Amino acid sequence: MIGVLYMLPVIGLSERREAVKPPTSDENACEIFIEVEGQEEKIPLETYITGVVAAEMPVSFKKEALKAQAIAARTYALKTTNYGKTAIAPTVARQVFYDEEQRKANWASNFLGNEKKIVEAINETKGQVLLYNKELITAMFHSTSNGKTESAFGYSGNDIPYLKSVASISDQASPKFEAQQEWTLAQWNKLWPVQWQASDFNRIQLFYNESGRVERLQLGSNVWTGREVRTLLGIPSTDFTIVYDAKTRKVHVTTQGYGHGVGMSQYGAEAMANEGKTAAEILHYYYQDIEIKKIDACLK
Hints:
Blueprint: H1 13-17, E1 33-34, E2 43-44, H2 45-56, H3 63-81, H4 100-107, H5 111-123, E3 128-132, E4 135-136, E5 141-142, H6 152-156, E6 178-184, H7 185-191, E7 205-208, E8 214-219, E9 222-225, H8 226-233, E10 240-245, E11 250-256, E12 264-265, H9 266-274, H10 279-286, E13 291-294
Helix pairs in contact: 2-3, 2-5, 3-5, 3-9, 3-10
């Protein structure tokens, strides 16, 4: 789950003047409220999803991609909070959330046009969630894969039927696909629980899983998982290579993809939307054998 500011398109003056209607709700309908850590009051579910989609996906994306994000985010929120019974953090560890004040600050003069586009995506998917065996799924999503999404098993060692690895080749055109970072050896050693020597970089063993991500790094008797290395270094993904340049005395790490790689790729969803795929087609591709159903809040 990634919350990043993006360059946004300029909205015409006529759009700026148009009032934005909040997500619709049926009269007398039961309503679910979400408690967001740091917010004074609980927030109606669809209003909360508006803030999540605004924070988690570039508003410049196609509406079908935004709709797919809305359904995934709604599912994730309800699963994580047990239909609003517990609080959820507005962070990348859960789902980033921007309230209206934050959206206005981020979008400035584009606020009305951007808000209108996102609210339409929310309203057109109102109440829709993803189910597997009639239960809410853990609808994980990420910014950009390395060309192949990660499976739940590859990420955590737990096999989840609807979170299998699938090809997402279009991610390779994403601006977030490849990243490079460097450290001096002194800086590098401050990050690790052991002290590296220049010669150690020739002894590194990287073991990759089926999705091309690092399963573990071994240096002599020391072993770290790919996820542990990602956390230690603060790098974008677990698909990485490590090279030490003896001339500059710097460590270079190159990563592919951005995020944990599990579930829906947001840039992959945008590529599919550009190909004319619907939100439902996008979701069925990234989450296998699931159903898209509308929840009845009155039964919860």
